Amino acid sequence: KRHSLEQIIEVYSITGGMPYYLVGLDLKKTATDNILEHIAKKGRPLLEEGEVLIREELPDATTYFSILHAISNGETKQSEIANHIGMPATTITRYLTNLQRLNFIKKEVPVTEGKRSKKSIYSISDNFIRFWFRFIYPNRSYIEEENSTRIREILKKGFILHVSRVFEEVCTQALCMEESIGHSSIGRWWGSYRDMKTNERKTAEIDIVVLNEEKNEIVYAECKWKEEVDVDDVLKKLKEKTVLVDWKTDKRKERFVIFAKSFKRKTEYSGVRLYDLNDLKNIFSRSQSN
After folding, report:
1. What is the pLDDT of residues 101-139, one digit of tens each?
2. What is the C-alpha to C-alpha distance for residues 126 and 144, in angstroms, rounded to an integer?
3. CATH number for domain 5-170, candidates 2.40.50.100, 3.30.1330.40, 1.10.10.10, 2.60.120.280
4. How far apart are CA 97 and CA 63, in angstroms?
């Protein structure tokens, strides 16, 4: 049976494509049903897999578990992680270094910044580990109680956000395959700004930014894991953020890309490309045939 790209991305967000994990799932069922029946259930091998993977490398794993849970929950700056687990920021440096060394996490900086930037954040490298610490680790008591109703509620609240982050990675891969979009570097962008109305300090984020040093070209991309996306609305908000991006501001050429499951109206403007799931499928199919 051929599966839709939407199903594939949802499963990929759980397994990362690892054959061992895929064997444990029933691909005829929804992602939520698979989680409830084959992962978040007593006696299932994948229920313990996240813990096994960490303890194999780090026997004294308690602090590492807390750090990975914090990152999976959106606490991505070193200071945020430290606050979440109740330790001084300087104390957790060696733990973060060890997790990086073992490729459990990666350190990222905005794509326009140098590697030594102070704007660094941490993310979990592996989809399964990210999923396990987001949904299994903090909810073990519900799983032990076999409270599938509560687990289903938790998944309903958070699973779409989890998949949307993985969707950004899929879209990044697709942009790398598009010959019409050459790049020197590609990645996420974020930066702080002062809200003129409230005088509050806020953070702006752009899902993907592609830099082409040779052509002085910059491509801004937003990824929406939603149906019937309104292009005008997304484009307006995206353009408001681009003025904050400090890169060749006097001579850069700007282009825009929006990814979504589907669009309300797929009307492309000059300098704007739209990709729905069918377009993504075509990109990956072309890549496989080359």
Report:
1. 999 999 999 999 988 888 999 999 999 999 999 999 999
2. 25
3. 1.10.10.10
4. 13
